[in-house]
Design goal:
single chain, mainly alpha
Length: 280
């Protein structure tokens, strides 16, 4: 059900895309790269503090603190013999903290991007093509294609002059509920009580990741690119891709821009982390 929610949310994001918005995202690519590199640099800087607070070994602490997806980091932990349970707990706590706290701070100042007039046939085609491609790619081990591919397919449609129609609001709300329920079902309540030091380390590292990235990249985005603070906060938040997009949609942020920052950071972290931890 979470995959269905991701697919619908990705298609809803694609329905907001316009040629002008795609151009803006291309222009922001250097800032996206800077944010991704900086987030990973802060993450590595937090490895030793995380290890000391949590009592974990250096490898497990590294996989806990890097700003990537839970599935990817927990999978790496299992492959490398690290504490996969601690990694899963730390990332679940980080994502939960982000999606519960940031909308409360930024939700009062929002101007949602509405879908433009488009073709419902194109939207249905985007959903169908994305469903097939995501299923095929997931069989080859690609993680989390369900939310990314609808945006890519939709962007191709828009670049070719075909505009997608927006999905009914009830579909978007249902997708957000499914993603939120999936996050809640992963909360290991028993382990929360067993590992308070890991939870404390996760809270500290999450705050450091956000403040470290936002203090440098945030002013650049606000001053030079005239991006609203809501979108900046969610674009730079160290949360999970699907969960942050659901929060961005809920508070009316610039969802495609948020996804661009989140996706590039996730791709960079997932690509480099196996290489960087090889000698640990």
């Amino acid at each position: 059900m979470r995959r269905f929610g991701q697919l619908v949310l990705g298609c809803a994001t694609a329905s907001i895309l316009t040629p002008a918005l795609l151009g803006q995202m291309v222009g922001l690519l250097p800032a996206m790269v800077l944010a991704a590199v900086l987030a990973n640099a802060v993450g590595f800087a937090m490895v030793l503090p995380f290890a000391r607070i949590s009592g974990l070994d250096k490898l497990s602490a590294t996989l806990c603190v890097l700003p990537a997806g839970l599935a990817e980091m927990a999978g790496l932990a299992q492959e490398r013999g690290a504490r996969a349970d601690a990694v899963a707990l730390a990332h679940t706590a980080r994502v939960t903290l982000v999606v519960l706290s940031l909308p409360l701070f930024v939700g009062a100042d929002w101007q949602p991007l509405s879908p433009v007039d488009g073709s419902m046939i194109a939207t249905a085609a985007c959903l169908l093509i994305s469903l097939v491609l995501a299923w095929l790619l997931s069989r080859f081990g690609l993680l989390n294609p369900w939310i990314v591919l609808p945006v890519i397919v939709g962007a191709i449609f828009v670049a070719c002059g075909v505009q997608l129609a927006g999905l009914p609001p009830v579909c978007i709300v249902a997708a957000q509920v499914l993603i939120g329920a999936s996050l809640g079902s992963r909360l290991p309540l028993g382990k929360f009580a067993e590992m308070p030091r890991i939870l404390l380390a996760a809270i500290v590292s999450t705050a450091a990741l956000f403040v470290g990235t936002a203090s440098v990249v945030g002013p650049l985005l606000y001053i030079y690119f005239d991006i609203d603070m809501t979108s900046i906060a969610l674009a730079l938040a160290p949360g999970g891709l699907a969960e942050v997009l659901a929060a961005a949609k809920a508070v009316g942020a610039n969802v495609p821009l948020v996804m661009g920052f989140q996706l590039l950071r996730s791709l960079l972290t997932n690509t480099l982390s196996p290489l960087l931890i090889r000698k640990m």
